[in-house]
Amino acid sequence: MRVRGVLLLLCMTVLSGCAGAQFKLPQVTEAEISQAALAVAGKTNSLEVYDRTNGESREMVERAAKRLRRVAPELCQHAGTSCFFNVVYVDDDFPNALALEGGRIEIYRGLLQYLRSEDELAAAIGHEMGHHIAEHLQEKQQNAAIGAVIAGILTAGAIAATGGNSYNPYQAQDTINQSMRLGASIGAISFSKEQEREADLVGAYLLERAGYDLVRAGRLYAVISAMDDKTRSSWLDTHPAGPERVAAWRKAIAEVRQSDDLLPDQ
After folding, report:
1. Where would a tag sit more exposed on the chain, N or C end, judged by fewer CB atoms within 10 A?
2. Which residues are CB-neighbours of 195 under 8 A, at least 6 positions away?
3. Is there a contact between 143 and 188 (Cβ–Cβ < 8 Å)?
4. Cβ(152)–Cβ(179) under 8 Å?
């Protein structure tokens, strides 16, 4: 219904003030994003596949995870969060990496096959650790609950404002329930672009502490850009577009190199 679309727009607007990054994010300009876009332009079909056995891939994941876990406690203490990470290699062709409940992190073969070095892999693992350290999973759950409540209240109000003449009680409740489910979905992706950038930033600090090369590690984001046919990200995208992440990673490197304590500003 047309009213529900308006209500969901209002819901998204309200949710935009619910949460933010725990750490101060480096500002990225449009000019910097444009420069990054030019740097990765034309590489969509140039992804190189690196042939590794499952044993080699699993060992690489375990080695990088061990190095990053060793340096994570001070960052976790700085953030006031738990520091348990269960990093798992997944033998699946889908190019992905996930942060899940209980500190679990999954790195898929489908992503690892495009990564040239352990530095790039460490960037992927460090990024997922960053999600846990910044408590993004908890934020998504909170935003989903808030989104459901807001959408339900607004929809019920709209139905009441029309006198409810177009609905019987069952239709009205069904409409409210549908709006709440959609509101929960919108709430769950609120700030996800900001969270992705924050996870990248925390990951950069982890990699520097672990002795990885941040410039080589940044090739991960060039790979992501090569998988992405966008040059900009829209408000509802769940991840920043590739060039935006490349530009943000460059700014993160500059910030980390200027840091005396290797802890991000809050």
Report:
1. C
2. 21, 131, 134, 136, 139, 140
3. yes
4. yes
Query: In this predicted model, which residue has the larger pLDDT, 39 or 106?
Result: 106
Dist CA 152 CA 65 (whole Å): 42
CA-to-CA distance for 151 and 15, rounded, in angstroms? Answer: 10
**CA gap 13, 47 in Å, rounded:** 38
Burial 230-256 (b: 16+ CB within 10 A, else e): ebebeeeeebbbbbbbbbbbbbbbebb
Please state, in angstroms and rounded to a whole number, the distance separating the CA atoms of residues 204 and 130: 9
51, burial (CB in 10 Å: exposed 0-12, middle 13-18, buried 19+) = exposed
The pTM is what? 0.76
Cα–Cα dist 177/4, whole Å: 12
Q: Report how far residue 89's alpha carbon sits from residue 59's, in angstroms, rounded to the nearest whole number.
A: 9
CA 262 remoteness from chain centre: 22
Q: What is the rounded distance in angstroms from the CA atom of residue 171 to the CA atom of residue 1?
A: 12
Most confident of the ranges 4-8, 27-31, 168-172, 234-238: 27-31
Q: What is the mean predicted confidence (pLDDT) over 216-244?
A: 67
Instruction: Find out whether 106 and 129 touch, Cβ atoms under 8 Å.
Output: no
Task: Give the pLDDT of residue 34.
Answer: 87
